[in-house]
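Aggregate trends can hide what the representation actually does to any particular protein. In the encoding step, the backbone of a single protein was reduced to a row of integers, each denoting a local shape. The record that follows shows the chain in one-letter code together with its fold in token form.

***
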Amino acid sequence: MEVGTPKEFFEKALPDRFKPEKAEGIDVTVQVSIAGPNGGEWAVTIKDQQLEVKEGTLPSPTLKIKMAEKDFLDVINGKISGERAFFMGKIHFNGDISLALKLRNAGFL
């Protein structure tokens, strides 16, 4: 399923893509900031193999991810890998990069 906006990804695609079995031992709060006409702020919590997504910001997230809307859509629609986008400077992380890799395995990014 091709995702058209970040909101569509967080509300519809991410809950379907999330793999609870791959999230064992992950306890994280992620602040995702997407810049662009359909961008915004999303707060993602993964704890006890459960996913919770809300629009808005977190006071002190474990991990912060910032991207432009077009780059975000390219990554989640499989047009470019998250690693490649990171090395090209299209994804900006603040926090534990190894945690970001675990999130990818659980279906997030």
In short: The chain has a mean pLDDT of 92. Residues 35 and 68 are 5 Å apart (CA to CA).
